[in-house]
Write a structure and sequence with these properties.
The chain is an alpha+beta fold. The chain has 9 helices and 12 strands. The protein has a 6-stranded mixed sheet with strand order 1-5-6-4-3-2. It has a two-stranded antiparallel ribbon with strand order 7-8. Strands 9-12 form a two-stranded antiparallel ribbon. Helix 5 crosses helix 9. 35% of the residues are buried.
């Protein structure tokens, strides 16, 4: 499996010269919209190339090295498309320093006639790929920590999926959100975490996950097929990715039918789905506030109410 870290440069100018030659210049910059964590730009170069740049404060460079690692890991499986990575970097700037990620610009295209069926097959192939390169000597986690949205995501490896999901996913989010909970809520949360093995199952095989797989993180490429962006990648149970696809609207019924046909689910997935999505609801509670509290408590009550 060809898995490598993209180059990192100490200035945007150095990155462009190294990637496109000494005569390169930025001829046009378009500010793009849609993300709420990073600034995004389409850069048109004198070479005729168009590239995509994400930027943030210099001290946020970890956002981009983590994203690049996740994209590289997914790309290394040769299963589903991701935007080609050009580099990461930092720049002191004329007024203020910044960090950046450069990707090839995805122009997009018209969805192919079997778009959702192909997407499902490609995702199933990702979930069936070898995971050893990403967590050597362990089964679950990732070779580095990363981010889920704007928040840190701990990927310290574990031999048990249930322990990993409890200790690296739910418990840290519950701890961060503690001020939102009553004493009664905390008692239920403790019971849920202590009895997680009664609700979750170990997977038949570990899977490399996108980690934040909602509709906004899927693009249609020029070939009409699905392309994954903005991963929060780690090795876990494929059910966690599939559950996330259903949290904010879901995909076509053909997607789910094809996925199940290609990669059958373990019995009881529907009973576990909300528990996987509790992680993302907690993350939204911690990022955006009390608007997500009732949804979090509803899931807790579903299992231990």
């Amino acid at each position: 499996m060809d898995f490598c870290t993209p180059p990192h440069y100490m200035s945007l100018a150095n990155a462009l010269v190294s990637l496109f030659g000494t005569s390169v210049a930025i001829t046009h910059t378009d500010r793009l919209h849609g993300g709420d964590i990073n600034k995004a730009y389409a850069l048109t170069l004198s070479t005729g190339d168009r590239i995509f740049m994400k930027a943030n404060a210099k001290e946020k460079a970890g956002f981009f090295t983590a994203e690049a690692a996740g994209l590289s890991a997914i790309a290394a499986t040769n299963t589903i498309a991701t935007p080609p990575i050009l580099c990461t970097g930092t720049d002191d700037g004329e007024e203020v320093g910044y960090s950046f990620l450069l990707l090839k610009f995805i122009e997009g295209g018209k969805k192919c006639t079997d778009y959702y069926e192909t997407f499902a097959r490609d995702l199933a192939a990702l979930h069936s790929a070898d995971t050893v390169p990403f967590v050597p000597h362990h089964r679950f986690g990732f070779f580095q920590d990363n981010f889920i949205g704007a928040r840190a995501q701990n990927n310290t490896p574990s031999a048990s999926w249930i322990s990993f999901f409890r200790d690296r996913r739910l418990a840290p989010q519950f701890k961060s959100a503690d001020a939102h909970f009553s004493a009664g809520d905390r008692a239920k949360i403790t019971r849920l975490l202590d009895h997680l093995n009664e609700f979750l199952v170990e997977p038949e095989k570990p899977s490399l996950l996108h980690g934040d797989l909602w509709g906004g993180n899927v693009l249609c490429g020029a070939d009409g097929k699905a392309m994954l962006i903005d991963p929060a990648a780690y090795v876990g149970h494929a059910e966690a990715d599939l559950a996330m696809t259903e949290l904010f609207g879901g995909f076509s019924p053909a997607f789910y039918a094809t996925y199940r046909e290609v990669r059958p689910l373990q019995n009881g997935y529907e009973d576990r789905r909300d528990l996987y999505n509790l992680y993302h609801l907690l993350n939204h509670l911690n990022m955006f506030g009390t608007g997500y509290l009732n949804a979090v408590l509803s899931v807790v009550d579903e299992y231990v109410g």
